[in-house]
């Protein structure tokens, strides 16, 4: 068994993978700094270390992308994180806006054996509380064809599949309006002028800025 990479590296490769899930173009250093809660110079230095370790590819002023080795490490961390989130939510009854921070603290302390045992106890769930797919033990992920709600057709019945693991207050806002995985929505209107998308959730009409709409992925119901 190969030794685990550093905690910093684990955090960064998981963050890069998660960003690539939502935007296949990769992630810039400044955006990565925001995700990690550090200044750009710190993120840049850590990206250099990851590149030296063979975990990422990066050229100045271009996006950061995982190498094959980096993706392998990222999948381990994503699996840990999402299984822990599911355990915290389903068994310990944490709310979906609380589990991310708690899982971040726990994921570096537990063993693969511990994660496998939790996975079995949970019944091998395929998604976490936000609808994000949980990688299997072999590193593969079940395929799921989804689109951004921003590109969804008007007046079609849509099922919310995933909500980006955003700031806790955003998740609380979504939940208060019935915007959760499994819910049915319709896109009523989109306005590039106001950068707003109007959704029907139940009997409610909800106007969201495009920046929040980008956190929602759906499939045709």
From TrEMBL:
Transcription in keyword set: yes
Gene3D superfamilies for the chain: 2.30.30.90, Iron dependent repressor, metal binding and dimerisation domain, Winged helix-like DNA-binding domain superfamily/Winged helix DNA-binding domain
GO biological process, one term: negative regulation of DNA-templated transcription
This protein's name: Manganese transport regulator
Family, as annotated: Belongs to the DtxR/MntR family.
Top-level taxon of origin: Bacteria
Subunit organization: Homodimer.
Alphabetic keyword roster: Activator, Cytoplasm, DNA-binding, Iron, Manganese, Repressor, Transcription, Transcription regulation
Primary localisation category: cytoplasm
One Pfam family of this chain: Fe_dep_repr_C
Subcellular location: Cytoplasm
GO cellular component: cytoplasm
Example GO molecular function: DNA-binding transcription factor activity
Residue span, HTH dtxR-type domain: 1-67
């Amino acid at each position: 068994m190969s030794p685990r990479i550093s905690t910093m590296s684990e955090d960064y490769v998981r963050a890069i993978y998660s960003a690539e899930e939502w935007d296949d173009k990769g992630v810039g250093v400044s955006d990565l700094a925001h995700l990690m809660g550090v200044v750009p110079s710190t993120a840049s230095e850590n990206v250099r270390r990851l590149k030296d370790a063979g975990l990422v590819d990066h050229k100045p002023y271009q996006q950061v992308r995982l190498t094959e080795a980096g993706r392998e490490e990222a999948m381990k961390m994503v699996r840990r994180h999402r299984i822990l989130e599911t355990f915290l939510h389903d068994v310990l009854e944490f709310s979906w806006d609380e589990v991310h921070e708690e899982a971040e603290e726990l994921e570096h302390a537990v063993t693969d054996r511990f994660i496998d045992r939790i996975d079995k106890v949970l019944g091998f769930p395929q998604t976490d509380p936000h609808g994000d797919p949980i990688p299997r033990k072999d590193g593969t992920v079940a395929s799921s064809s989804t689109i951004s709600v921003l590109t969804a057709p008007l007046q079609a019945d849509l099922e919310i599949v995933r909500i980006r693991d955003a700031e806790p207050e955003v998740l609380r806002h979504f939940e208060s309006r019935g915007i959760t995985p499994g819910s049915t929505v319709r896109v009523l209107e989109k306005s590039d002028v106001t950068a707003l998308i109007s959704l029907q959730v139940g009997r409610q009409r909800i106007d969201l800025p495009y920046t929040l709409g980008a956190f929602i992925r759906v499939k045709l119901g």
